[in-house]
Amino acid sequence: MLTKEYHAKISGTGMYVPDKILTNYDLEKMVDTSDEWIKSRTGMSERRIASKEQAASDLSYEAAVKAIEAARIKTKEIDMIIVATISPDHPFPSTACILQKKLGLKGFPAFDIAAGCTGWIYAANIAKQYIENGIVSNVLVIGVEILTKLVNWSDRSTCVLFGDGAGATIISRADEKDISRFIDSEISADGTHYDLLIQNAGGSRIPASKESVEGNLHTIYMEGNKIFKHAVKSMYQACEVVLKRNHLDVHSIDWLITHQANMRIINALGKKLNIDEKKVIVNIEKYANTSAATIPIALDEAVRSKKIRHGDLVLMASFGAGLTSGSLLLRM
Amino acid sequence: MDIKSKVTEIIVEELGVEESEVILDASFIEDLGADSLDTVELIMKFEEEFDIDINDEEAEKLTTVGKAIEYLEKKLK
User: Fold this and answer.
1) Distance, in angstroms, between B62 CA and closest chain A CA?
2) CATH topology of domain A7-174
3) ipTM score for this prediction
């Protein structure tokens, strides 16, 4: 293990979701589905939909401003930006660079991370390393997604699952005396299942063409049933690794924030971990699956509603396209 | 407890059905009211209870009570 020169902590959080709400009842009018079907299989009631004009960097900017304010730092004190997303403004340049411009900043690293729904955990893990090694002091870490522009609106099994939103966090160097700090993090991937959740076209494998558009190959393809099992197992494993490594029992955890993909996955993981369900933070009913944004949005809501307080021990876990998975253990 | 009784017990508990409904020919989805995620959860429960791995290809074939019992009996031999 590397020696830590410094400690990292979350110094501020923020979120932004678009105003437009799409309910399960609205979806009933669009595809062959029902409120009961969606609720019983996913736990979702509604989701937010970005406007035609809004792109990932626009949502990110709104969330970032709130996180910067909460962290009580000046915007110019940010010295790295990492944006976790699979629905960037453009295939390139990175959304992080566009966000850097929007914030009126330049002259430091800004890059995107594509780890699907685990993106924010991957990005936070990277930010942690840079802070602990003393290279940077304040990293703006964003999880943002506008997946409603990538879904196949004629596929009833997937189009109901996703929503749009952005969650921002400022990850900063912690003072020596500060009890707030990142304790541990674990990230992993199992590429053998890369094709279970995929946007097939638009890259170098299947470049955009008339056929790729007509064949709906630019939209999200997902084998949900198969992912379900991998999701529960990989998140459980990621949690167990950090708990064991730090000699912690699950009962010492104050809050568990998992990726909000499906209520039944969250329940299955909670049961497997044997954690009190009152400690599990859930907002899937309001926002559905916002991919890389679910955890930072849930964190921001829990902090602002004073559910999560200074000093609380928080365990986070996610999984996503790749298949990627990861966990993060921190004292808030 | 033999495999058949254990499997029956798991199905009764996971799907909330009566033991009398859990006959060999019963399909999880058509007869026992499972949805597609229930069947995945059922497979995960089998894996946990019998301490085995059931891969996706094999799992897809286990559509009835009888097929599940037959598969598990073979696998645990």
Assistant:
1) 14
2) Peroxisomal Thiolase; Chain A, domain 1 (3.40.47)
3) 0.80
